[in-house]
Amino acid sequence: MNKVTQILGIKYPIIQGGMVWVSGAKLAAAVSKAGGLGVIGAGSMAPDLLDQQIKKAKELTSNPIAVNLPLLYSKIEEQIKICLKNDIKILITSAGSPKKFTSYLKEQGVIVIHVTSSPLLAKKCEDAGIDIVIAEGFEAGGHNGRDEITTMCLIPQTVDAINIPVIAAGGIYDARGIKAAFALGASAVQMGTRFVMSKESSAHDNYKNLLLNANSSSTKLVMKKHVPVRLFKNRFFEEIENMETRGAQAQELIEHLGKGRAKKGMLLGDIEDGELEIGQVCSSIKKVESVEDIFKKLIIAFE
Amino acid sequence: MNKVTQILGIKYPIIQGGMVWVSGAKLAAAVSKAGGLGVIGAGSMAPDLLDQQIKKAKELTSNPIAVNLPLLYSKIEEQIKICLKNDIKILITSAGSPKKFTSYLKEQGVIVIHVTSSPLLAKKCEDAGIDIVIAEGFEAGGHNGRDEITTMCLIPQTVDAINIPVIAAGGIYDARGIKAAFALGASAVQMGTRFVMSKESSAHDNYKNLLLNANSSSTKLVMKKHVPVRLFKNRFFEEIENMETRGAQAQELIEHLGKGRAKKGMLLGDIEDGELEIGQVCSSIKKVESVEDIFKKLIIAFE
């Protein structure tokens, strides 16, 4: 039995990435039903919506469900309360210090996983009492580390730096990637992009269709002066990149971004002026399938 | 028997990267003796020196020796003549169109390998008659692709795009990385950084010692407006990065670079003002060992 499946009480060591706007109750429940760990992405949810989505997911499956909580979120304490009230036993924290809530969450009987992008941060996680680390490489979609360490380099470095289990993320979408991640020393994988392109994700159909026509140069990491983020190259991306090319600084970029661009793109389907957070593997996925069918292909890695 | 070892007539599917200033006859011969493919990096050699280095390598071993030829080099035709005259049977071409010399080289009985950074270019290689493709990811040292595709994403995409064998490069330094590359579909691996940090490389001791103290954020890809290159973060790197941050364009960067910076750093050991091309894995290598000892650890992957 695998260390991560044992700790989390799941069948397969496959974690679905908790993402903004695309991973609600429906996707999380489908992944948990299939034997992986389904994750509700709380980063784009007001506390009331999070409460509703957790309840909905729990109605759909009795298997473990986790919540991904970006710690920079203004109502993070309220979100934590909602998770505890709803008896969520696995929390994935990111975008903040693992010192802040880990002791408290552990006292409440929660298993705490933290997302890292460097072996240095992974060590800090271990010291803070984190149970499992997700090591996410440069090729991953959405927010990303400043050091640009790729999955191939990050996994062995992280495994060598700490004694707690490591979940590999970034660039994994099929059984080959899962096998590679395990060869590098990971005990499980997290996949985001592969599940954005599932029937159960709440990504808009315009967005899913756009991704089906992606090529290997369709994404790029931008906004390195603000918060590095990997985006699909659409008009919104080009505006940001042009500003960076002429030397625009963080404040100007933040103002240009405005608000609601991610919702506009990923949930509402404005594929030109919306912000589309996606991983480099998007071009390798040529079909939007059900989570059940996706799992059938992934678990070949464990046969 | 593996496709690549069969074509190249070598024992282990391990190729040493042909690098500027650090891979001469001594390193190439040691790798070929150990059962891999030793490669002389012609990119930093005047034709006379190349002639001398090939002759020296052939005196040191009767196993196959290859030469890496960056096609943008001004005296490339002269270099090709020297390789043919010295009966080099394996050439690795890069930094130029695979259409230019492949037919001619094949007529001369040479096995031609081309370095690519995208599945699109890999397809062009196959169409041009290339025998084997090296797919090199974003984490690799030195010159790099514009699309920033990481090894984890690039290998399966390249394997799926072509029918000729794929050698994985970028981010590989130990048996775990080799196993991962094979899981992703590669038929062999190329390693550069691992061999820069060998006793037989001609990298200056100052440089090797600097690398022994690297951490996971010690390298970065810069000069994306000119020729993207992954460098060790020293004073030279910082100058380039500061220029880019304020929006400097290609011409200004090229002028600032001047000439001989790579030689100054890597061969002559000026670790502050020299250009140090190295891969993201440098921080994982904690010992300068002989090629023979390095191979002992690598070949565990095939046991």
List the helices and strands and how they pair.
Two copies of one chain form a homodimer.
Chain A: H1 3-8, E1 14-16, H2 25-33, E2 38-41, H3 47-60, E3 65-70, H4 76-85, E4 90-94, H5 102-107, E5 111-116, H6 119-127, E6 132-136, E7 142-143, H7 151-161, E8 166-169, H8 175-183, E9 188-191, H9 193-196, H10 205-212, E10 219-222, E11 229-232, H11 235-245, H12 250-257, H13 261-267, H14 291-298
Helix pairs in contact in A: 2-3, 3-4, 6-7
Textual characterization of the structure:
The structure is a homodimer of 303-residue chains. Chain A is α/β, with parallel strands linked by helices. Chain A folds into 2 domains: 3-202 and 287-302, Aldolase class I (TIM Barrel); 205-282, no CATH class. In chain A, 40% of the residues lie in helices and 16% in strands. The first copy, chain A, is built from 14 helices and 11 strands. The first copy, chain A, has helices at residues 3-8, 25-33, 47-60, 76-85, 102-107, 119-127, 151-161, 175-183, 193-196, 205-212, 235-245, 250-257, 261-267, 291-298, and strands spanning 14-16, 38-41, 65-70, 90-94, 111-116, 132-136, 142-143, 166-169, 188-191, 219-222, 229-232. Chain A has an 8-stranded parallel sheet with strand order 1-9-8-6-5-4-3-2. In chain A, strand 8 (166-169), helix 8 and strand 9 form a beta-alpha-beta unit. The first copy, chain A, starts with a helix and ends in a 5-residue tail after the last helix. In chain A, 58% of the residues are buried. The model of chain A has no long low-confidence stretch (mean pLDDT 96). The interface between A and B is large, with 44 and 44 residues.
